[in-house]
Design goal:
- The complex is a heterodimer of chains A (about 250) and B (about 180).
- Chain A has about 250 residues and is α+β, with helices and mostly antiparallel strands.
- Chain A folds into two domains: about 5-85, Ubiquitin-like (UB roll); about 85-235, Alpha-Beta Plaits (2-Layer Sandwich), CATH 3.30.70.20.
- Chain A has eight helices and ten strands.
- Chain B is an alpha/beta fold and about 180 residues long.
- Chain B has a single domain (about 5-175), classed as Rossmann fold.
- Helix content of chain B is about 30%, strand content about 20%.
- In chain B, the strands form two sheets. In chain B, strands 2-1-3-5-7 form a five-stranded parallel beta sheet, sandwiched between helices. Chain B has a two-stranded antiparallel ribbon with strand order 4-6.
- Chain B is elongated and about 55 Å long.
- The N and C termini of chain B lie far apart (about 45 Å).
- In chain B, about 40% of the residues are buried.
- Classes of the chains: A alpha+beta (about 250), B alpha/beta (about 180).
- Chains A and B meet through α4 of A and α4 of B.
- The complex binds iron/sulfur cluster (SF4).
- Iron/sulfur cluster (SF4) binds next to α5 of chain A.
- Chain B: This is NAD-reducing hydrogenase small subunit.
Chain lengths: ~250, ~180
């Protein structure tokens, strides 16, 4: 780091890739970065929900140590590197692993064009999946009249779990099992979505970054070229994402 | 002396020919390319056997024994081998059968499916043997470049080929990177 950058650091600032970034006490590195519109790649983080540190895409080096930016508090004088060839190469590998672990066939997926996993592939310049495909065969839950759950595409980001529990106050989803056995379950006696009180307007039904939770009869709403990531990069959309605030129309 | 034309071979394995159609979509620029390239084995020429070529374009994934044979023939003959389109690179839509056993698929289609008459699973030496799964081409041979898309746009094909006419490495523009 240059002397100038050193001088610029005051009590409540860190540097990210050499840029001085202020923070408020209690903010994470991710919070501080987003506040000044610095993009640190992430899939399982969504401002307004408690961070979970699941996906590991936001791994940065803070004072030389690898940490997940979404769960690491900013500390005065911390020197963070994020947009480096090494970290982006690691993020690309993580993204490729997320692709092969599920069944992500973009040309046949309703979420294509609006999918944050796909957009992450674009952002990181992923040309191929590199690893062997798992071809998992997981249970599809079509028991609900307006919300569909296709577990083959779930990346276990835990966003629906947190959204349902903390925002919708319904606690519809949970992740059961560990490691390779981890899977998304529905908290009803039957385990079926149709027996839960989830509604299409719930945040949990809308927050899924991939095509695992879909609102029925809304697929392919926007034509190719007019979908979110036909027009924008995930590094742009990430700047405006936030759980609806109280005064917002929850629509 | 006239410049040597670049020899290009193309094939469609387990694909739908959409990538070939998109390639032809470069319209009048095909005429420009025509001065610099010539086609070897390709559905466009009907040449059946690949001989030494500068570039091979592979559309489609690998679903049967004949796909493996053709892919290896291309690898053996092409200096640069390029996987074109979602099916070649990931298996694509044909790979949706990977979530089922091969037997389940055959039984569904030829024995238990709707409207099946004279149910029997085809078995003839003329028919290439199906593989257990549909594989991305890079799981079978070494691939030099990838051109994602379903199909890749005509412009993406140009971005891939034009630099190679002058021996340059192709670089796909960020806005041309699509998986669908
Ligand atoms: S269903 Fe979607 S939101 Fe829920 S854990 Fe899976 S990927 Fe995340």
């Amino acid at each position: 780091m240059t002397n100038e950058a050193n001088k610029a650091i005051d009590a409540n600032s860190i540097t990210i890739d050499g840029e001085t970034v202020p923070f408020d006490a209690g903010q994470t590195i991710m919070d501080a970065a987003l506040a000044v519109k610095i993009y640190i790649p992430h899939l399982c983080h969504y401002p307004g929900l408690t961070p979970a540190g699941n996906c590991r895409l936001c791994m940065v080096e803070a004072n030389g140590k690898s940490v997940a930016a979404c769960v690491t508090q900013a500390q005065s004088g911390q020197q963070v590197s994020s947009n480096t060839p090494e970290l982006n190469a690691a993020r690309l590998s993580i993204t490729q692993m997320l692709f092969v672990e599920g069944n992500h066939i973009c040309p046949s997926c309703e979420k294509s064009g609006n999918c944050r996993l796909q957009a992450m592939g674009y952002y990181l310049g992923m040309l191929e999946e590199h690893f062997h495909q798992f071809n998992p065969r997981r249970e599809i839950d079509a028991s609900h009249s307006t919300v569909l759950l296709d577990r083959d595409r779930c990346i276990l980001c835990d966003l629906c779990v947190r959204a349902s529990r903390d925002v919708d106050k319904k606690n519809v989803f949970a992740i059961a099992g560990r490691g390779i056995h981890a899977r998304l379950i529905v908290n009803t006696a039957s385990g079926k979505l149709g027996d839960s009180n989830i509604e299409a307007k719930d945040l949990a039904a809308k927050i899924c970054p991939v095509g695992a939770i879909l609102i029925r009869e809304r697929s392919f709403d926007s034509p190719v070229a007019e979908r979110i990531y036909d027009r924008q990069s995930i590094s742009d959309t990430a700047m405006t994402e936030h759980v609806p605030r109280k005064e917002d129309d929850r629509g | 002396m006239a410049e040597r034309k670049l020899k290009i071979a193309t094939t469609s394995l387990a694909g739908c020919f959409g990538c070939h159609m998109s390639f032809l979509d470069i319209d009048e620029k095909l005429m420009l390319l025509n001065d610099r390239i010539e086609f070897n084995r390709s559905p466009l020429t009907d040449i059946k056997q690949c001989s030494p070529s500068d570039i091979g374009l592979i559309e489609g994934g690998v679903c049967n024994a004949d796909n493996v044979r053709v892919l290896r023939e291309f690898r053996a003959n092409c200096t640069i081998l390029i996987a074109v389109g979602a099916c070649a690179i990931t298996g694509g839509v044909p790979a949706m059968r990977n979530y089922f056993d091969l037997r389940e698929c055959l039984e569904e289609v030829y024995l238990n499916g709707t409207g099946v008459t004279n149910p029997q699973i085809p078995s003839d030496t003329e028919l290439p043997l199906l593989l257990d799964k549909v594989y991305p081409v890079q799981e079978v041979v070494k691939i030099d470049y990838f051109l994602p898309g379903c199909p890749p746009s005509a412009d993406a094909f140009l971005q891939l080929l034009v630099p190679q006419l002058d021996g340059q490495k192709p670089q796909l523009a960020a806005d041309q990177l699509h998986y669908d």
